[in-house]
Amino acid sequence: MSTLQIIANVWDKHLMTMRTIEHLQMFSIALLLSIIIGVTVGVFIYMKPKTANTVLNFLNIVETIPDLALIVLLLPILKLGAGPTIAACVLYSILPIARNTYTGLKGVDEQYTYVAHAIGMSPREALFKVRIPMSLPLIAGGIRIALVFCMGVVTLGGLVAAGGLGTVLQNGIQLYQKDVILIAGLWTGLLAVFLDGFAGIVEKKLHERYGTW
Amino acid sequence: MQSKRLFDRIDSIQFKGVTKKYGSVFAVKDLDLEIQGGELLILIGPSGSGKTTALRMMNRMIEQDSGTVTINGLDTREVDPVRLRRNMGYVIQNIGLFPHMTIGENIGLVPKLEGWDKNRIEKRVRELLDFVSLPPEMFMNRYPRQLSGGQQQRIGLARAMAMDPPLFLMDEPFGALDPILRKQLQKEFVKIKNEINRTIVFVTHDIEEALILGDRIAIMDQAKLVQVGPPEELIFNPVNDLVADIVDAKRKFKHMDTLNVKDLMSPFEEKYAFDGKMEACDAVEEMTSKDIENAFVFDGEEFLGHVTMIDLMKCRTKAQKLADIARPVKNFQPLDSVALALSEMKKSKEHLAIVMDSKHPIGILVSDEVLLKLI
Amino acid sequence: MVILETVLEATWEHIVLVYTTLFVSIAVSIPLAFAALYSKKLEFVVMKFANLVQAVPSFAVVAIMVPLLGIGFTPAVVAIMLRALLPIIKNTYIGLSNVDPALIDYAEGIGLSQWQINIHIRLPNAYPAMFAGIKFAGILANSVAVLTAFIGSGGLGEIIFQGLIGYNTSTLLAGAIPAIMLAILIDLSFTMIEKKVTPGYMKG
User: Fold this and answer.
1) CA C154 to chain centre
2) What are the residue ranges spanned by the domains of chain B?
3) Can you give the residue ranges of every domain in chain A?
4) Measured between CA atoms, how close is C166 to chain A, in angstroms?
C-alpha cells in the first residue's frame, strides 16, 4: 500500500476527523475562557497593584504542577471527560495571559496616559482606548504561550476520556501500532506548530500597529 | 600560560608612517612619532584627532593599514597580541574593573593567568593596594560597585601595575571624575610617576592635565601630528594658531594678574561639608558613597579644617573624630587676587583652600600647577 | 490501594529520570551555547529547531518516540530532553552574549585570550540566566516525566495510569501528589541556587 493509502486507512479507522474536531472544540473553548479570565485578572491586578504579587505568586505555583497531575486533581470534582481537561487548560493559561496583560498595561508609557487625561478622557476611557490597545502586543504574546499550553493539555485529555487526538495517540501506544502513532503524532504536532505560527504572525502585526519599540 | 617578558626597559617606541583609514575617513595619517624611554608622553587633541587610535595601535587593539609601530626595534605585528598586551599596563576611563570579581581578584587576574601561586599573588595585591593608598584589609574583598569613582580608578592603576610592566598605556583615566577629585588624583599621579619611573603614554583632552603630567606633549588634530615637545615649548613657541588655542596661552596667562579667586574656584557643594563630631571611619564610608575624597570640617558655623580620605584610612587603628584630624587651610575672599592666593598656597605647600563669603563657604580653590609654574 | 513502597519506588524512578535528563541536557546545551556564540548559522538553526519542538504537545512528543526509538528509559530521556533543551540553551546563550562590549574590549586590552574571556568573564555573567533556564527546564522535565510512564519508563506516571485504569481516586492522588511536591521542590531548590549565583550588582 502506498503511504497515502496507509494514512487514509489510519485516518478513517481511528476517526481522526472527528477527533480533530473534538480536539479543536475543546481547545477553542478553553482558550476563549482563558483569554476572558486571564485578561480580567490582569486588568484587576493592574488596578489594584497591592494584590499583584500574591496573585502572581499563586499562579506561579499552579504553573509548576505537571499537566497530568493537575487534570488528576480535578477529576474528583469534575469527573472524567472534557470538564477537567478544559478546566486544567484554563488554570494553566491564566498566568501567561494575566502576567502579560499586567506588564503590558504597566509598561504603557506614562506620557500617553497623561495626554489621554489632558484631552479629557475619563480613566475608564483611557483604559479602554489607550492603555489596552497599546498593551495588545504583549497580551498577544501571553495568549500565544497559553495557546501552546492548551494544545498540550487538550492532547492529554485523551487519557481521561475527553476525546480529541490524544485518544488516537493513546490507542496507538497501547496497541503498539507505529504508523498510528506517527500519523497521529505528526498531525497533532503540525496543528500545534501551525497555530503557534499563526499566533506569532498576529503578535508581530500587533507589534507593528500598536508597539512603540 | 607564562608569557616571556618582551622587554625589561623601554628604550624607544617608534611610529613610522603609520596610517589607518575607516572607509574614506582617515583616523591616523602618516604618523611619525618617537616616544622616548622613561618619559610620560601626552597625546592630546579634539575628538577625532586620532589620539586614541594611535594609543590602541601600540597594543594592537587596532591594526594599522600601513607603516610600522616598533617597540625597542621589535615590530608589534611580529608578536602574538595577547603576549604583547601582557607586557603593558592598560588603564582606561570607565570600565577598569570586572564587576563580578572582588578587588583582590581583579588586581590578581593577570598574575593568576600567568601561573603565579596564591601566596605570591596575595603578596603582590597587598603591595599594590598599599601603593595606591588603599588599606588592603578594607578593600581586598570588596566589589567594584562598593567603591567610589576615585577609589575605582586607583584600583585600575594598581591592576595595571600587577605585572610590573615597563610601559603603560592610559586612555583618559581621570576623565570620568569631578574636577576636584581629578586634580587630586593628578597630583598623586605625579608622585607615582616619579616613583615608578616607567614609560607612559597618556591620552587626554584636558590641556591642564597634559601640562601638569607631561614630560612631552604631542598635539594631534584630524588624524595628523601637529606638534610635539615639552610644555614650555608649546606654550611659548606654538607652531600654529591651533596649538596656541589648545594651550590657551593667550587668554589665561595673559590676564593672570586680573583674575580673582572667584574666577578660578569650584563652587562649594553641600556634600563636602562634614560635622566635626563625626567618627573617622564613618566619614570614610560617607565619602565613598558620595564619591568624594575631600571633606571640609565644620563645628556648627565654625570652619575647623580639611581632611582627605587618605588621611582617614588610618581610622582602623585609632578611633578619632574629624575635629581632631582636620587640618587648617588657608581662607580666601572671592575678590582676592588669584596670583597672590596661589603664591601663598605654594609657599605653605597646600593645594586646597576654602573661599568664604563673610561667614559662609562658597568655594574651593585648588592650586593650579600650571599657573604656578609660570608665576 | 497502593502500597507506600510502590510509591517510593516510583518516586525514585521519577527523580532518576528527571535528573539524568537535566544532567545530559546541561552537558549538551552549554557547548552548543558556546558554539552558537561563534557561528550565526548554528545559532539560527538550533534556535529555530528548538522553538519549533516547544510548540508540539508533550504527549505527542512522547508518543512519537515509540516508533522511532522504542519504549523504556532511553526514549523517555530523549523525549524529555527535546523539551528541556531550549530553555537551557536559550538562556545560556543570552547570558553569554549579553556582556557589555566595552568590558570585553577592556579584557582584550589587558591581555586576555578569547578563551580566557569566555571562562572568566562571559561564563560568570551567564550564571544567573543559565540557572533560571535550568530551573524552567527542570519543571518541564518533571511534567513530561509523568507522561513517559506511558512508554515504559517507570516513575510516578505509572501510578497515575494505574489509577486511571481502575478509576481509583486514592491511587490517582498517590501518583499526582508526589509529582506536584517534586515540582515544588525543584522550583524552590533552583530558586535558591539562582539567588546564590546572582551577584549583587545584577539584582533588581
Assistant:
1) 19
2) 12-253, 261-374
3) 14-210
4) 12
> A57 to chain C, minimum CA–CA distance in Å?
12
The CATH superfamily holding the domain C4-202 is MetI-like (1.10.3720.10)
Q: Quick check: A64 and C56 CB within 8 A? A: no
Contact indicator for A150, A89 with CB cutoff of 8 Å: yes
> Tens digit of pLDDT for each residue in B138-195?
889 998 888 888 888 889 999 999 998 999 999 999 888 888 888 888 888 888 888 8
Architecture of domain B12-253: 3-Layer(aba) Sandwich (3.40)
pTM value surpassing 0.80:
no
Assess contact for B333 and B355: CB atoms under 8 A.
Answer: yes
C204 falls in which pLDDT band (50, 70, 90)? very low
| Cell numbers for B140 | 581586598
Check pLDDT > 90 for residue B126. Answer: yes
Q: Residue C111 is nearest to which of B82, B92, B94, comparing CB atoms? A: B82
ipTM (interface predicted TM): 0.82
Q: Show Cβ contacts of residue B268 under 8 Å, excluding neighbours closer than 6 positions.
A: B296, B354, B355, B361, B362, B363, B364
Q: Which CATH superfamily is domain B261-374 in?
A: CBS-domain (3.10.580.10)
Q: What is the mean pLDDT of chain B?
A: 85
- Which CATH number does A14-210 carry? 1.10.3720.10
d(CA B326, CA B312): 10
Supply B357's cell numbers: 563669603
Closest CA to A75 of B77, B260, C201, C176: C176
Q: Torsion over CA of B18, B20, B24 and B29, rounded to 10 degrees?
A: -30
Check if B94 contacts C (Cβ < 8 Å).
yes
- Residue B319's alpha-carbon distances to A175, B280, B307, in angstroms, are 84, 7, 15
User: How does DSSP assign B304-347, residue by residue?
Assistant: EEEEEHHHHGGGGTS--BHHHHPBP--EE-TTSBHHHHHHHHHH
CA B51 to chain centre: 17
Q: What secondary structure does DSSP assign to B128-143, as a single string?
A: HHHHTT--HHHHTT--
